[in-house]
Specification:
Blueprint lengths: L1 E3 L2 E2 L31 H5 L6 H12 L5 H19 L3
Antiparallel strand pairs: 1-2
């Protein structure tokens, strides 16, 4: 299931949680992305972390921020509810 041909829904917490909205990190005084919640260091070193470390980071960010997995889950949930309300699901 995809949202579009290039925006594939991520099923794993170990997938990169980037939402491509981290404009606040262009200011060097900001150390944490306001979208996904990762620190500048976590973003820069993401590919070096183990799967468990990646999952821990995403889980830590889950409550206050909107990592991609959470955002896509909410979109999927909204789409399912809309289908049910329209009688198509």
């Amino acid at each position: 299931m995809t949202l579009s041909s290039k925006n594939k829904i991520s099923e794993s917490l170990a997938d990169n949680p980037c939402t491509s909205r981290c404009a606040n990190l262009s200011d060097s005084s900001n150390e944490q992305c306001l979208a996904c919640g990762r620190t500048r260091t976590e973003i820069n070193k993401w590919s070096t972390f183990s799967e468990v470390e990646k999952k821990e980071i995403v889980m830590r960010c889950w409550e206050k921020f909107m990592p991609r997995q959470k955002m896509e889950g909410l979109i999927r949930e909204r789409e399912e509810i809309t289908k049910k309300l329209n009688g198509t699901g």
